[in-house]
Amino acid sequence: MYYAKSYPTESIKQHTDNLLENLRVLKETYGKEIEDNIRKILKISEDRFWILLEIICTYHDIGKIYTPFQNKIRASIGESIIQTSFSYEIVKHEQLSPMFVPVEKYNLSIDEKMLLYQAIYYHHERDNKEFEEEYIKEVIAKDILPQMEQVKQELGYELETNLNTKYIKYVKKRITEKDELYPEYCLLKGLLHRLDYSSSAEMTIEDETKENIRKYTEESITNAGHHLNDLQGFCENNVKKSMVIIGSTGIGKTESALIWSNGAKTFFTLPIRISINAIYDRIEDNIGYKSVGLLHSTALEYLEEKDEFDNEEEKIAQTRNLFDKITVCTIDQLLPFVLKYKGYERILATLSYSKLVIDEIQAYSPNIVAIIIRGLEMINRMGGKFMVMTATLPRIYKEELEKRKIYFEFGKYIKPIERHKIKLQEKEIGEDLDIIIEKGKNSKVLVIVNTVNKAIELYLKLKEKSSEDIHLLHSKFIYKDRNEKERNIKEFSRNKQEKGIWITTQIVEASLDIDFDYLYTEMSTLDSLFQRLGRCFRSREYDKEEPNVWIYTKNASGIKYVYDEEIHRKSIELIQEYDGQILNEESKIELVDKLYSKELLEGTKFLKEFDDSMRILDNLIDYKVDKKTAQKLLRNIDNFIVIPKTVYEENLKLFEQYDEAGKNYKQKNKIKREIDKLTVAITEGGRRKMQDRISRNPYCEDIWIIDAKYDDEVGLKLEKDEEYDVNEQFL
């Protein structure tokens, strides 16, 4: 038996047959979409494309007959070793596999040889040693040829009879994005990765459901007693086009995007995890569509708490393999492909026949938006479709898309409703605590500040002054406590009888369906500010004389390290004329458009960061980073996972059980998931500032112990919060 892998034990023939079966599933499920793209972007015909992909799948692992590889497997499963003078350290199986492709049988052109050989040769993306042609010739003569009859008999595939090293000249110079063959190569190699990963994990590559989420979404709108609005109708009529949509908060952008997806494989991205969970629940529970996956750093814990799957780990593994019809996720799960890390083609090839939704693009920092725009450019070249939807759109982002000749339909849909009467206060937010307390006695009051420490400070002051219903939510609670608070704020918003005060940071800004009566907020930049307004009078008309939004402009926390100081100052200047007035939806859009114009941004740190990022991305060298590094670069933060010392000591027995589980990996993983619920993420900057109070965990190397005050009422209290930045809300 020629082995392909040791656990579970599988032969090369079995593994290859699994790939070919998954290829059949892929073709049956999304073949039409892939073929539509092939006709638009590739020079080869769709028939020829499928033949080439089948060849790649069939021959990609045949190099595993190499005796040093077989010995690695045999040793791991307790079989005797075959004597050989060759070394797997010098040449790997993927470096040998291309030679087995029977070139004459398939009548391969020079371009096709290059595509096939490179897709196979680089499918593991290892830093292999430079191949030595003479060494490979010796491998062929002394190791491969003596086995050929046995190989043919066991595998049953037609193999090249004249084995030689001619293929090497086709793999020396890699195909990159600048090459003419790039779209073909990206699609073939990327789909090989998909097929290989899924088959190795013994998973079906795609959810084969025929259920169309558009049908479910439209039915949910009808069942609620509504008709499709203008935005939803616009999306319904443009399902084959990319879109950029500006739509008022509460107008139904989520439902519009799901209608636009129209049964296609779709990835729905949002900037904040709490919003992602909320959209996942809306799709699955409210709309009733079950072919949906959830993907972010704590998705497994969230699914376990929902307790709706027999095996949540298996569900997450499927989602990571891009199995689901609809995937709701953070952008760091997809967009690192822009950095062209080794193996990135898997994501880009999938997005070439899928649809990508970018919700609330203005919530990201300029360097992240640069990555998004570059990603949309690459997706556009590969034939994929995208929708950017947002309540406010910085002008420079739309101009950059147009400059790069990325075609999209543009629509602006504004609710003719007056929801917010604002009042600017030239004082600190903490000076009006008595007013906030009084409002909270008979109304739902939301207080949003720019930093965690400011939120804690206000909460403690309010608790000192009042016994009213007061709650706190920010990113520095351990997962278990934060998840409960996220559920509570949504339930509080839905319950019409509830009155009281919630103090939060900007983690509630994007796509969270909550509705409060009054908003008291620190001044942020206009795009962030208007997102905050969307959590107050979300879909209601406001007709009272007094304001329902109070904006505090003096000594706002987080300026310089959360929000750009210059843009913050210009935001205050622009909004001054609306002080004491109704701020309608059209005015919000116009203000953000003006704020983020080239003219007003000239000379700002924001514009420099955006332009520099675009320039760097345009000049990246392919395959210079690995995926993990790419994800870190995308987020611009290093997750540093800590457990508060008091929480660690209270749960020491759990850590001891984790240690005692030893090599019982199933039990160990189960305990680890419970441990993860006791942790919180801080930034690398936060770690540096607290390094004298952070120590190693003797049981879990990836979780550090932090000697800082923590309780489930106020969360983790750090001495300073300069380590908090705008990207930390993604944690």
Account of the protein in words:
The chain has 731 residues and is of the alpha/beta class. Helix 21 links the parallel strand 14 and strand 15. The chain is 45% helix and 11% strand. The strands form 5 sheets. Strands 5-6-4-7-8-3-9 form a 7-stranded parallel sheet, with helices on both faces. The chain has a 6-stranded parallel sheet with strand order 10-15-14-11-13-12, with helices on both faces. Strands 17-16-19-18 form a 4-stranded mixed sheet.
List keywords for this structure.
single chain, 731 residues, alpha/beta, 6-stranded parallel sheet, 30 helices, 11% strand
As a percent range, the share of strand residues is 5-15%
Q: Reading side by side through the largest sheet, how are the strands ordered?
A: 5-6-4-7-8-3-9
The tally of beta strands, per DSSP, is 21
Main beta sheet:
7 strands, parallel
- What is the structural class? alpha/beta
Parts with pLDDT < 50 across at least 5 consecutive residues? 722-731
Distance between the termini: 47 Å
The gross shape turns out to be: globular
Which percent range fits the helix content?
Answer: 40-55%
Rg value: 28 Å
Mean pLDDT equals: 92
> How many helical stretches?
30
